[in-house]
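Recall from the previous lesson that a structure prediction takes nothing but the amino acid sequence as input. Here we apply that procedure to sn-glycerol 3-phosphate transport system substrate-binding protein from Nonomuraea wenchangensis. The sequence below is the only information supplied.
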Amino acid sequence: MPPGRILRGISVAVSAVMVTSVTACGGEGDGFSGQTVTFWHSMAGKNGEAVAKLVADYNGRNTGKIRVQAIYQGKYNDALTKLRASIQSRQTPNLVQVFEIGTKLMVDTKAVVPFADLAQAGGFSLDDLEPGIARYYTVGGKLQSLPFNASAPLLFYNKDAFKEAGLDPDKPPTTLAEMAKAAKKLTVKSGDSVSRYGFVASIDGWLVEQLLANAGVEYCDAGNGRAGAATAVNWNTPTLKGIVDFWSTSVKDGVALNVGRNNTDASAAFQAGRAAMLPFTSANLRDIIGGAKFEVGVANYVRPDDAEQGKGGVFNGGGSIWTLAGHPKEQQDAAFDFLKYLASPEAQATWSTSTGYIAVNAKAQDTATYQEVLKTYPDFAKPAEELRAAADVPAAQGCLMGAMPQARDKMNDIVESVILGRATPETAIADAETAMTPAIQSYNKSVGQ
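The prediction returns the following tokens.
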């Protein structure tokens, strides 16, 4: 569902939620009389198992006092649709996990309690949180939600293939031009048959966002939406044209494997040795290293050729946990207690090492759990280091815009149309930028901006 429609549905019911609380304590037929906290999340598979482990540990520590009910709500867009329905029916969860590009949407609902306010009242110091990650979710000078599943873009590469192709396995590409040069050497062909491509990348707007940020290019206007409400995307630039041209040319020349928009297929192709490089999220770092039968190299994300090093930087992907307003104070206090647990060094060490996500509490890296995993997976520390190295500029903080989910889909359309030969980079970008303007205007109008 488009974010504007979700927002309008939410906004209509906000006032009702603020005065009508849902009491979720007791009443479960097992004699429990403490506070029950409902937590909606979008973590499936192994990540969902890791969430269940954290919740079980917390519940075990708070037997008889607080019980957290973690409920999987499907993918991020599905969870937003269900959140809209829950507000309309006045049956909201206490906590909900939302992807990073839903940040502006959540703030504009005015149905949330800023995490910074809860932290101040609850005596929780925000200083322990990774500053680069916290910066993304800071709106209006306040940290709005608790960063939870944070990731960064990386370049995974096959060190064995690098050696075979005569490339230095300790000097991976740092720019798109270097990546293109390496891809040609890494590609193995026999006639029209390609047994190994230079690289594989799923068509994912997030990867493009990160390239622009790494170049210091703001994705949208109004200081990347950080100085005011964004009114337009900033796509018609030489940098984006260069990115799209690099991608489409690599596919056309047979050095890049096109798997469409399927992230899983891209990761699987790399692990199977069908491609020697993979621009991807750090969230799957452990699975990628463990699933490959070759030595996997892990490097910082590449940057566009016209980018000056140090002028930009990548920002976090993933999601955060929001606290919904309108619940009794006792329940809100219980929900915050759970959030404090999730933000603790120990919980973050467990979460990070079980999944590959970045530990949002910097002190997690000092725990025995984290240090033990570093012995086997020393690259676990790289994503956080990469985020810390980003310049403190709007371009490296991500675009804050209510229509961001639509923008990401439209960026996918740009890349796909050029790769398939349906349009030139110039035409695809110009048309998409024009198409985004009414979508942004509609969203801004829906929230009175």
